[in-house]
Specification:
CATH topology of the largest domain in chain B: Lipocalin
Radius of gyration of chain B: 26 Å
Shape of chain B: globular
Radius of gyration of chain A: 27 Å
Largest sheet of chain A: 5 strands, antiparallel
Largest interface: A-B, 43 and 52 residues
Number of domains of chain B: 3
Distance between the termini of chain A: 94 Å
Strand order of the largest sheet of chain B: 1-2-3-4-5-8-9-10
CATH architecture of the largest domain in chain B: Beta Barrel
Number of helices of chain A: 5
Strand content of chain A: 15-25%
Oligomer: heterodimer
């Protein structure tokens, strides 16, 4: 092998090495946050003002929760337990409330409780729950 | 001849001296009436532009306060509102913006036409709704009927005896509630619009709506600068006369909560609920109100509804509301539900529910 050919081979090998290294440092987009499937995951995402939504079924009702990058939380009552009367279903189903909060200060009670934290929210769900509290 | 002249002079003198049997009376109409009347109103809401249909709502016992040249109409779906008579039986209402959770609605100006026999009125206005999920337009038609007919003639010139003090205070509260309702409505509008702004402020598709919402918030804040002291002064005058008046204390509680003055809110709540008999009556009023909302004979209880039972358990577990320790408020088990209701719900709902 002549010197020129050797130099060419070395140059190609170096180039290959560089390219291999480049491929390893080309930035990849941050992966989208994984979808949540439980309350703890959603609460963490909401606290961090991430775009997230989840539907969770509890003892007495199923709620849909959303959080956004603007630190706005929405809670919607999707359905109540089948043991409730038709009037309760009509009264509550589909009602929602919206709450703005500071990043890092999301109240977990908004997810884990029917009423905790709702004084800082607005919407038909808040009023409906408040009305029912009189008779508890 | 002299006798004839004397007789003629006497007749002429008599004619000149006779006073008219009656003065020309101003014809009666709503614009020169002062008093309160009650109406049954049918509201026909056309929500076709919003993806809905045409809905009919009946409101019974809607109060209209006439103030000789102006009037205040009770809530028929878009809050109570005041207007000015532009002719004997036509009341003009200016355009306005009202909270319409989860958004708000801009209502057009409109004229309310009263019939000359005092038995009916009719009007129509359009509205533009703006909310977190949609913007759309529609219209509302109001038809009111009043079986009582025209009110009695004006009071005689002889001043009536002073009314009993309870009637006087009730009248003062009724008058003060017009401004109170306006103040509560403005604050709730600000809350709703602020939540809308937070939600959509970085979305170019909502730029126009966000700008409009910010203007509405600024306008509301400006109006409250003069309205708040007026409400405060009106209720101060009432509570000087009757410090333990349930309605006045209840109303001030809502007002203070809307201002974020939670210790004052608690003080007025406790004053109101110290009247146990009236508190029990109001709890019953709430019962009827909620049953009406649910279109059911009676409200659900922890015994009949797992959801209500859980709400009670969760309500018991709450320690702080607005950062305020509510343990003491829950000590009186009989009023615990009312306390939680007052802490958690909007002021305008608390007012609607007890004005049955």
């Amino acid at each position: 092998m002549t010197d020129n050919m050797g130099r060419t081979v070395v140059a190609c090998m170096l180039a290959a090495l560089v390219l291999a290294g480049c491929c390893n440092i080309i930035p990849t987009p941050n992966p989208a946050p994984a979808a949540c499937s439980d309350a703890a995951c959603f609460i963490a995402a909401a606290n961090n003002c991430e775009d997230m939504n989840v539907t969770l079924s509890g003892n007495v009702a199923t709620f849909a929760y959303t959080s956004s990058q603007n630190c706005v939380f929405t809670k919607t009552l999707v359905s109540v337990d089948s043991n409730e009367t038709l009037e309760m279903k009509d009264f509550l189903t589909g009602k929602s409330m919206t709450c703005a909060y500071q990043k890092g200060s999301f109240n977990p009670g908004l997810v884990t409780s029917l009423v905790d934290g709702m004084e800082n929210c607005t919407g038909g769900l808040k009023d409906a729950l408040g009305e029912l509290l009189v008779f508890t | 001849m002299a006798g004839t002249y004397r007789l003629a002079a006497l007749a002429l003198f008599s004619l000149l001296m006779v006073q008219p049997a009656f003065a020309d009376a101003a014809p009666w109409n709503w614009s020169n009436y002062t008093g309160t009347t009650t109406w049954d109103v049918t509201a026909i809401e056309d929500e076709g532009g919003c993806g809905g249909g045409v809905y009919t709502y009946d409101y019974s016992g809607v109060i209209i306060q006439f103030r000789g040249g102006s009037a205040v109409m009770g809530d028929t779906g878009h809050a109570s509102v005041g207007g000015t008579f532009v002719s004997p039986n036509i009341l003009h209402i200016d355009s306005r913006t009202v909270a319409d959770p989860p958004g708000s609605s801009d209502l057009s100006a409109y004229d309310v036409f009263f019939t000359a026999d005092c038995t009916a009125f009719a009007t129509r206005y359009t509205w533009d709704y703006s909310g977190p999920y949609q913007e759309c337009s529609g219209s509302t038609r109001l038809n009111g009927v009043n079986s009582a007919g025209c009110p009695k003639p004006p009071e005689p010139l002889i001043p009536p005896p002073p009314p009993p003090s309870t009637q006087l205070v009730d009248g003062m509260i009724s008058s003060a509630r017009v401004d109170l309702d306006r103040a509560l409505g403005l604050r709730e509008l600000m809350e709703t619009q602020q939540a809308f702004v937070f939600q959509h402020m970085n979305d170019p598709a909502y730029a126009t709506s966000v700008a409009r919402a910010n203007i509405q918030i600024a306008n509301a804040r400006e109006e409250l600068k003069t309205l708040d002291p007026k409400v405060e002064a009106a209720y101060a005058a009432i509570l000087v006369r009757d410090p333990n008046n349930f309605n006045a204390n209840w109303d001030m509680a809502q007002f203070k909560k809307s201002e974020g003055q939670i210790p004052d809110f608690v003080r007025y709540v406790n004053n109101a609920l110290s009247d146990g008999k009236t508190a029990a009556t109001k709890r019953n009023d709430l019962r009827h109100y909620v049953a009406g909302q649910m279109k059911t004979a009676d409200v659900p209880t922890p015994e009949t509804s797992p959801f209500v039972r859980q709400a009670g358990i969760d309500g018991d577990a709450v320690q702080r509301v607005y950062g305020y320790d509510i343990a003491k408020q829950k000590e009186n088990k009989e009023n615990e539900g009312l306390n939680l209701f007052l802490f958690f719900t909007s002021g305008s709902l608390a007012e609607r529910a007890v004005r049955q």
